[in-house]
Amino acid sequence: MEWLDRAACVGEDPELFFPVSGSGPSLTQIRRAQAVCDRCPVTWQCLDLALGMRHASGVWGGTTESDRAALLRPRRTAR
């Protein structure tokens, strides 16, 4: 995974990407982490890694745990 060397989060405090909750001050932390992801050249690779490994917590590829759960949830087809 040589793409990790190009990630915008290299050198950032890892705790930034693992907020304690999804409300209050943690929302600010989530937004700060997502701002790092917004300028990252390997966001899609990071998200793919998180989805493939089913990472439960943290901000990965600019997404939160609930964002990824929604992406993984089976879609119902309209009839």
UniProtKB/TrEMBL annotation:
Binding of [4Fe-4S] cluster, residues: 9, 37, 40, 46
Keyword Endoplasmic reticulum applies: no
Domain 4Fe-4S Wbl-type: 8-70
Cofactor note: Binds 1 [4Fe-4S] cluster per subunit. Following nitrosylation of the [4Fe-4S] cluster binds 1 [4Fe-8(NO)] cluster per subunit.
UniProt cofactor(s): [4Fe-4S] cluster
Principal place of residence: cytoplasm
Membrane-crossing residue ranges in chain numbering: none
InterPro entries cross-referenced by the UniProt entry: 4FE4S_WBL (IPR034768), Whib (IPR003482)
Post-translational modification: The Fe-S cluster can be nitrosylated by nitric oxide (NO).
Alphabetized Pfam families for the sequence: Whib
Keyword field: 4Fe-4S, Cytoplasm, Disulfide bond, DNA-binding, Iron, Iron-sulfur, Metal-binding, Transcription, Transcription regulation
PROSITE patterns: 4FE4S_WBL
Localization annotation: Cytoplasm
UniProt GO molecular function: 4 iron, 4 sulfur cluster binding; dinitrosyl-iron complex binding; DNA binding; metal ion binding; protein-disulfide reductase [NAD(P)H] activity
GO cellular component: cytoplasm
GO biological-process terms attached to the record: cell redox homeostasis; negative regulation of DNA-templated transcription
Known function: Acts as a transcriptional regulator. Probably redox-responsive. The apo- but not holo-form probably binds DNA.
Recorded family membership: Belongs to the WhiB family.
Protein name per its UniProtKB record: Transcriptional regulator WhiB
Species of provenance: Streptomyces xanthii
Gene name linked to the record: whiB
